[in-house]
Design brief:
The chain is an alpha+beta fold. About 15% of the residues lie in helices and about 55% in strands. It has 2 helices and 10 strands; from the N terminus they run H-H-E-E-E-E-E-E-E-E-E-E. The chain has a 10-stranded antiparallel beta barrel. Strand 7 and strand 8 form a beta hairpin. The radius of gyration is 19 Å and the shape is globular. It starts with a helix and ends with a strand.
Amino acid sequence: MKKRNFLLLPLVLVLVSLHTAWSQSFPDRVIGQWTGIMHMYKDGNVRDSVKIRLKVVRGATANTWSWKTEYLSEKMPMTKDYTLKQGESSSTYLLDEGGGIVLQDYQFGNKLYSVFETHDVLLTSTYELRGEELVFEVTSGKKIPGGTEVINFTVQFLQRAVLRRSP
C-alpha cells in the first residue's frame, strides 16, 4: 500500500503543476525576454531577415501586459511598443498599438490569433508557444477578384520568427 502511494505522489505533483501552468493566461506564460531572427518571405522565397527582441512584462494595471518588439536592423531599426489587455472573456485580448489602433486577439490553447484588414490588405498574426520556443508569424495578401460565395485572398508575404527566452 505504501509503495503504491509513493508512486502516485509524483504523478499527482506533475498533474497539479501542469494544471497550474495551463491555468495561467497566455501572456503570463510568455512573460520575459525573447530573441530570434525574423525571416521575411515574398512569394515563397526568403527576401530578408532581421534580429528581433520581444519583451513581455506585466502591466501597471490588472490584466494588462507590455508587449514590446524591437527590430534590431542596422538600416531601419524599429520598436513596436504595444499594450495587451484582457478582453471580455478569458480567451480574448486587445492589442493596443496606440493612436486608436486596437487589434482583437483570440486565444486557443497555446496560440493567439488575430485577423484584420487595412488598406485592402488582409493580415493574420499569430503567437504560438511551443515548448521553449515562441513562434511569431504574420501573413498578408489581397483579395482575389471574381469570388461570389467564397472570397479568396492571396498569401504573398510571410514574416516568421522562432524566438527563444533570453536572460
